[in-house]
Amino acid sequence: MRITQSLGSQARWAMVFLAALALVALSMVSWGCDSDFGMEYADEGAAPSKAADQAGQGEGGDIEVAGVAMGSAISAEKEITRPTKTFHPDDTVYVGVTLRGSASDTHLTARWFHGPELEQIAKTRFRASPDGLEITEMHIGETPEPLEVGQYRVEVRMNGEIVEVRDFEVVPEDVELEGT
Q1: Is residue 64 a contact partner of residue 98, using CB atoms and an 8 Å limit?
Q2: 51, 80: one domain
Q3: Which of 16, 65, 83, 93 has minimal Cβ neighbours within 10 Å of its Cβ?
Q4: Structural domain harbouring 118
Q5: What tens-digit pLDDT sequence spans the chain (180 residues)?
């Protein structure tokens, strides 16, 4: 009888151990896939600050933002080929961030805001490890739902520090687009 109880207890402990191991493995897979990088849409509102700091440090080096461009088209090299600050609802809004320097782990974030209250509608995250000059692109608008007509703002951060704030507008399809 004790052997059965002992096996039952051992089996329960084994199941608890396997469940804990599965949770750890799931956490590692989620972390390894960088599930918090990419695009996420937010319901909470947050107004961006206006500060701009163009120097920063990634892990293992010095890095700076050499430029930020906005437009409705990009090249294979991630350069903005159609610069503009006015878009149609079905357009994709691209922000190209040129990094200069060397760092092994640089975090870029674009926070996207809409409306007079600057409600945060999305956040795009990207991890870069530049060595020299590198362009990174982040975008909004590639969803089944078109962008709403109105005023927008994008706040670009590098390693948590704001490096650029850009305002742009989405206009109805029948309105001619303006350049920068």
Answers
A1: no
A2: yes
A3: 16
A4: 38-170
A5: 444 445 566 666 665 555 554 444 433 332 333 333 444 444 333 333 333 333 444 454 688 999 999 999 999 999 999 999 999 999 999 999 999 999 888 999 999 999 999 999 999 998 888 888 999 999 998 878 899 999 999 999 999 999 999 999 999 999 988 755
Name residue, tokens 């990207």: 126
Residue 155 inside a domain? The answer is: yes
| Count of structural domains within the chain | 2
Q: Is the pTM of this model over 0.85?
A: no
End-to-end CA distance of the chain: 82
Token pair 């207890």 is at which residue?
A: 9
* Structure letter (DSSP) for residue 74: B
Closest residue by Cα to residue 52 from 37, 65, 69, 70? 65
Statement to judge: residues 27 and 49 lie in one domain: no
